[in-house]
Amino acid sequence: MTDGLILVVGSLNADLVVQTARFPLPGETLTGEELRTIPGGKGANQAVAAGRLGGSVSMVGALGADSNGQMLRDSVEASGVDTSHVASLDGVATGTAVITVDGAGENTIIVSPGANGRLSVADLDAAAPLFDHAAILCLSLEVSLEVVLEAARRARTAGARVLLNLSPYGPVPDELLSLTNILLINEHEAADLLDLTAEQVLAEGGKYTRAALTERGIPRAVVTAGAAGSIVFDGATRDGADAVAVPSPKVTAVDTTGCGDAFMGSLALRLAAGDPLAVAAGYAATVGSFAATRAGAQASYPTPEELTAFMGSHA
User: Fold this and answer.
1) Which of 24, 30, 173, 218 is deepest in the core (most CB within 10 A)?
2) How far apart are the C-alpha atoms of 18 and 223, rounded to whole Å?
3) Catalytic positions, please?
């Protein structure tokens, strides 16, 4: 599957993961299982998810010239992703995420940007030919807002669609939202962005969310809600429906780390192949659910053969 280049401008992190029965309370110390250091970072995860499923993927990012950086480069390249525009920087550590996973598979994450914070507009200049060939640009917020905004500008000028994951959540300029073709947010991010209550986001088929998206000038969005599935807001749906509920396959979660990135990468994959947004979101929901059944982020993502078998068992 090589329909259209997927360009990811984003982060690469070494994930330091500890599993524990429950999250500690403030001031409390708990004993966890063995510490694991595994490849992660929202940008790298999205690239790997699309690459493992057969997409044509290139990444722009920055690593430290250290062992974690080499681990990440090896992992991303093993998934078929072009890393020729992922820099290795001396004198700065590779980005790191400290992740706690509880007995229900839920997680908490604290990120130290490291080399991700050094990614600059000059790196976009060096990668200029990629923008000319991209069908989809994937962006999230683990690199500087300056870089995210400039990448979105260049993608739109080149005719690529911009897929923005507003995570980790933070305020963004209206210009970035206006440059975004498709916004991907979870229910909590939607509530923050659109000034809604958590209950309003999914209520009445997404009525309140659609009104708030329209007010912000955002025509197309996917709002995810974990096991509850997602709602796709797309005035271009063939049946004329503006909001489409997309279910997620029911699984027993082992670890939800990186599931949102699996959704993002596979959504980009199917959009680059020409799928309508709601169809692409259904595929992405299946990939995200598969990822929840395995530990870790990138290691949990399926190959096409694994995904086919999973879909057959959850038909």
Assistant:
1) 218
2) 29
3) 261
